[in-house]
């Protein structure tokens, strides 16, 4: 096997989006790992990939060359089953112009988190080639609905999508439209929505609102779209065609206070 093998950057990623990269190298009986966020600039042969910050690193002493070789082979196999893309060259850290320090910008939006239910089991059942085809159709369907309802894709993570909307109603409609569109692919999604502030720094977005949105999505069952009380309270009477059912008060893991959640009725 080659001395270096880099795997990362999901195929569905396009210019300007942030994704994750993973890097592995074996030297004798020791395995070296690097992983972290990357920024993708350009497309096709001219595409450039940069670490957005110095990657995290780990050194694993396996005790023997065979054990290290097996570790690398198994690690690569796991990533391939999640449709990672091999990279032919190294990943440099993107250098920012000296003297330009920009403060993160505050943004307010409705945040949509979508992911596929039981994606690992489906990938194992379909096999790599078929699953790759399904995922390509899945992302095409998601992006079609985002474009139609003016959502902004922020990042893709494996089989998940994080997007933002200027208002809650289009976000809710987009979530239900995605749910119906991907059912034709034999997929079920869960979706969560929350409205709040977060900070934008270049390609990166950070803030508690994003974590709340993720936790709301984690509470959703297969085919369910859940919203936080913040989203429900922002809906105007003119948008009353969107119906909600109270799903009770929940403690969201790692999030302060308890939140009332609502299921979108369609």
Task: Give your account of this protein's structure.
- The protein is 30% helix and 38% strand.
- The chain has 266 residues and is α+β, with helices and mostly antiparallel strands.
- The protein has two domains: 4-87, q64v53_bacfr protein fold (Single Sheet); 105-265, 2-Layer Sandwich (Alpha-Beta Plaits).
- Strands 7, 8, 9, 10, 11, 12, 13 and 14 form an eight-stranded mixed beta sheet that branches. Strands 1, 2, 3, 4, 5 and 6 form a six-stranded antiparallel beta sheet that branches.
- The longest helix has 21 residues, at 128-148.
- The termini are far apart.
- The mean pLDDT is 82.
How would you summarize what this structure contains?
This protein is α+β, with helices and mostly antiparallel strands. It contains 6 helices and 14 strands.
Defining traits:
eight-stranded mixed β-sheet, Alpha-Beta Plaits, six-stranded antiparallel β-sheet, 30% helix, 14 strands, 266 residues, q64v53_bacfr protein fold, alpha+beta
Question: SSE layout and pairings?
Answer:
Blueprint: E1 4-8, E2 18-27, E3 30-41, E4 48-51, E5 56-61, H1 65-81, E6 85-87, E7 105-116, H2 119-126, H3 128-148, E8 152-157, E9 160-165, H4 168-183, E10 189-201, E11 204-206, H5 208-219, E12 225-228, H6 229-234, E13 243-251, E14 258-265
Parallel strand pairs: 10-12
Antiparallel strand pairs: 1-2, 1-6, 2-3, 3-4, 3-5, 7-9, 7-10, 8-9, 10-11, 12-14, 13-14
